Amino acid sequence: MKILVGYKRVVDYNVRIQVKADGMGVVTDGVKLSANPFDDIALEEALRLREKGLAEEVVVVTIGSADLTAHLRNGLAMGANRAIHVQTGDAVSPLTAARVFLKLAEKEQPGLFILGKQAIDDDANQTGQMLAALWDRPQATFASKVELTDGKAVVTREVDSGLETIEADLPAVITTDLRLNEPRFIKLPDIMKAKSKPIEVIELATLGVDAANHVTTTHYAAPAKRSKGAMVKDAAELVAALKQKGLL
Amino acid sequence: MSKVLVIAEHLDGKLNASTARAVSAAVAVKPEVIDVVVLSDAPEVVAAEAAKIVGVSKVLTVARVENAHALAAILAPQIAKLAAGYTHVFAPSTTFGKDVAPRVAALLGVSQVSDVMSVEAARRFTRPIYAGNAIVTVEADASSVVVATIRTASWPAAASTGAAAVEAVAIDVALPTHTRFVGLQQGKSDRPDLQSASKVVSGGRGVGSKENFEIIYKFADRIGAAVGASRAAVDAGYVPNEMQVGQTGKIIAPELYMAIGISGAIQHLTGIKDAGTIVAINKDAEAPIFEVADLGLVGDLFKILPELEQAL
């Protein structure tokens, strides 16, 4: 079985982002970029399934600008067999990403598509579900445990009320939650090895993907700031302050 | 004019409070019609509850044995078919809504608007990105159906003094069999629900152990609060994951939020930004939580919590 892994590059999760003064975006020039944390978890899970002998090949896939090569090399150094880079200079919405992934699913015929549950830049939490819908295959979102047996995935999902387990026939789309695994660190020899692994480049324009999205972002703003609070010196003063506000 | 379809969330024959919050957002669209759809194997009780939500025109029930469990792959084709008569499809931005709504949007060939914070016009909304560190305004094309999830912390629950009609509908669509429900392990708690509680007490890494968390539970019970936790406390195994508050956990807006032994990483602050009053208790005076706290107290939580109880 082959596993395709969505591997997006985003502003690093530790960066406090700034909204541009003209309201047309956020500042990304000179800001540290790294793999979306949920995608690292997706790749780690795919690698573990391969190490258990449940998959033969793990392919990392990204969509975006020409400078994503180094990002894909990271995924290859972590252990992916090869990479696919769908190139475009345009911003990519979850719907467009899902349509691109569908083309790749048709071409590569994977048994599993593993994506992060959300990208920490747009916080959309849509791409995996959309891919599953377009592909007409099962989805197992927010996965915290994955078991593969006899052409089926048994997945434990983190839902608001607790932990839900579902069974999905393969091929399927799984999206990862934080507690699925702890992604491995990349070792220096693996970085050297990754240099010789193949990266296939496909121009998005050649895939024949419908570009219509029907939703446009028109403005960016900084969130309303909370006013600076006060420090209290002890428990009695805290209780008095909360009672005064009518909260206790 | 607009017609909004709200997807009801329910479990064990009970309507989830997030549904009434999604109705509030639907009201802000100023539509002609707000219909709520209940998909279930036995929708009657839930539908009767939904019919009481003020603002609802009609409750539609889709009774099918396949709808016994909320599986997105089963529900989405039915909702997509029903959506034909509507301009908007809203679902709460809970794990249920986040699972099913994008699948509906893709079937309709439109992008989804995730986590609607405000309705600026019938097709213009604001939503958070980058863990709430930026707010974007998005606009949906005039011709397409708007599929959106509603950030429950941003909307009050509509009152439940109404009396809408309930109507059973049949949706003729073939359903897949490739996805099956196996089981649900629910977190058991007699405390108020984290997402709708007016007071929340949360513990973090500073609490130190699963056993020590008792002190948090005890204090929360004393003031009638729900209990939450930071990711660090969940990852350390002090509490189950459904208690996590933050970008990747629950986003809440209680009147009072008390962060105890929580440093206040960006991802945690995302989950509490809209809380009425934030109280921080931490031994590190430099902890980022104090930057957003309305009231801060520096000190050892194991000393302060008993003192607080005494002061009450």
Please name the defining characteristics of this protein.
heterodimer, A: 248 residues, alpha/beta, Rossmann fold, 9-stranded mixed β-sheet, two-stranded antiparallel sheet, 6 helices, globular, B: 312 residues, 7-stranded parallel β-sheet, 5-stranded parallel β-sheet, 18 strands, 25% helix, elongated
Characterize the structure shown.
The complex is a heterodimer of chains A (248) and B (312). Chain A is α/β, with parallel strands linked by helices. Chain A has one domain (2-244): HUPs (Rossmann fold, 3-Layer(aba) Sandwich). Chain A is 27% helix and 31% strand. Chain A has six helices and 13 strands. Chain A has a nine-stranded mixed beta sheet, sandwiched between helices. In chain A, strands 2-3 form a two-stranded antiparallel sheet. In chain A, strand 8 and strand 9 (162-169) form a beta hairpin. In chain A, helix 2 packs across helix 5. The relative contact order of chain A is 0.18. The mean pLDDT of chain A is 96. With 312 residues, chain B is α/β, with parallel strands linked by helices. Chain B has two domains: 3-168, HUPs (Rossmann fold); 199-311, Rossmann fold (3-Layer(aba) Sandwich), CATH 3.40.50. Chain B is 25% helix and 29% strand. Chain B contains nine helices and 18 strands. Chain B has helices at 18-28, 44-50, 72-82, 95-108, 214-223, 231-235, 266-269, 289-292, 301-311, and strands at 3-7, 10-11, 14-15, 33-40, 58-63, 88-92, 112-116, 118-121, 124-129, 134-140, 146-150, 165-168, 179-186, 199-203, 226-229, 256-260, 277-282, 295-298. Chain B has a seven-stranded parallel beta sheet, with helices on both faces. In chain B, strands 15-14-16-17-18 form a five-stranded parallel beta sheet. In chain B, strand 4 (33-40), helix 2 and strand 5 form a beta-alpha-beta unit. The longest helix of chain B is centred in the first third of the chain and has 14 residues, at 95-108. At the A-B interface, helix 3, helix 4, strand 7, strand 8 and strand 9 of A face helix 3, helix 4, strand 7, strand 9 and strand 10 of B.
